[in-house]
Amino acid sequence: MKKSLSLLALAFGLVLFKAQAQEVGINIVAIPRELKVGESGIIRVDICNGDADPTSAPANRLRPLVSLPSLVEITSVTNTDGSPLTDFQTMSQSPSSIMLLYRPALPNPECVTYDVHIKAVKVGDAETVTGTLGFQGPQTPRNITSNDNSVTTITVVDAATPVTLASFTAKKEGISAQLNWVTLQEKNTKSFEVEHSLDGRNWRNLGSVAAVGNSTTQQRYSYLDTDPANGLNYYRLRMVDFDGHTELSRSQSLSFERGLQANVYPNPAVDYLTLEVKDASKVERVQILSTTGGAVYESAAPAAQVKVSNLTKGLYLVRFQFKNGSTETYKVIKQ
User: Fold this and answer.
1) Per-residue confidence (pLDDT) for residue 56, from 0 to 100
2) Which CATH code fits 164-256?
3) Which end of the chain has fewer surrounding CB within 10 Å, N or C?
4) How far apart are CA 290 and CA 7, in angstroms?
5) In whole angstroms, what is the distance from residue 224 CA to residue 171 CA?
6) Rounded to the nearest 10 degrees, how much is the dihedral formed by the CA atoms of 138, 144, 148, 154?
């Protein structure tokens, strides 16, 4: 009889153990892993019940702790959508750590996730953030302690811009645009990309000037645009560092009155149309367009004379597009 009672008690104990057994774990990740001083980020915390059996971790038992290095400080804690944190009670909080208590039971196989919001306060490289899953009272049965800890790293870099630009000027030098700029400081700077626009909105790259790279003394640079467009020209600098970060300068403008660069004759035309350009090397493309906008002729290296005898009589547009971004358009009658 005693043996039967012992076996019954053992069986009941095993059933009770199985009903209460949960394998819960914690995982944390820094988003992003690199911040500049003054920037904000998050530590995303996941707590999961990964037990093989469909049992719940008891209510008021799971107690996650997130500990941070002195590079960053905690500013708040929220749900992942940014709304106020629900289902958790704050047990303790400081600039460098926060301990919470999860109030509901955590069913299997479910996870609960929240965000610890942080702000970068000083420079440092790949320092460790730790997440520890503690328990209010005893651990859940069958808990695997190796899942109770998680680490990630965070790096904080200097918020200083790669370049301190003292001046950037543009002035006429004959029919060219002379650009000059001076830096007071450079940090990890790769190059200065010179950009040009005809309207201040659409920009194209003119060329690149290599930077000194790292400097705390005054550095002088220049670039000569030998082919500005007729009319208003805008210029700006794109400052590029070796990490791919870029910054833009204020734009400068110059106006040129260069006269027309091309001519078209005879007009009206019957059999051939002569295309005359002052400098053919500056031409990017020439098109002859019908009044509907369709191109009946197009060439990047146009011939001096274009046969038009096969074209239908009527009005056509001859458009010269130059490498400096400017265009000239002429109306021609085909007879």
Assistant:
1) 82
2) 2.60.40.10
3) N
4) 99
5) 10
6) 170
Alpha-carbon dihedral angle through residues 84, 86, 90, 94, given to the nearest 10 degrees? -30
**What are 190's two structure tokens?**
């790769």
Phi, then psi, of 10 in degrees rounded to 5: -65, -45
Do the two domains 164-256 and 262-334 of this chain adopt the same fold?
Answer: yes
For residue range 17-47, what is the model confidence (pLDDT) as tens digits?
333 445 788 999 999 888 888 889 999 999 9
Q: Residue 1's pLDDT band (boundaries 50, 70, 90)? A: very low
Identify which has the larger pLDDT, 54 or 286: 286
Q: For the chain, how many helices (H) and strands (E)?
A: 1, 25
Q: With contact defined as beta carbons under 8 Å apart, do 201 and 185 qualify?
A: no
CATH number of 24-157: 2.60.40.1510
Q: Region 184-206: what's the mean pLDDT?
A: 92
8 A C-beta contact, residue 167 and residue 220 = no
pLDDT, tens digit, 9 for 90 and up, residues 128-155: 999 999 888 776 666 666 668 899 999 8
Indicate the domain borders of the chain: 24-157, 164-256, 262-334
- For residues 290 and 308, what is the distance between their CA atoms, to the nearest angstrom? 12
Pairing of strands 34-36, 149-157: parallel
Cis peptide before 266 (omega within 30 of 0): yes
Return the SS3 of 147: helix
* CATH architecture of the region 262-334: Sandwich (2.60)
Taking every pair of C-alpha atoms in the chain, what is the biggest distance, in angstroms?
Answer: 123
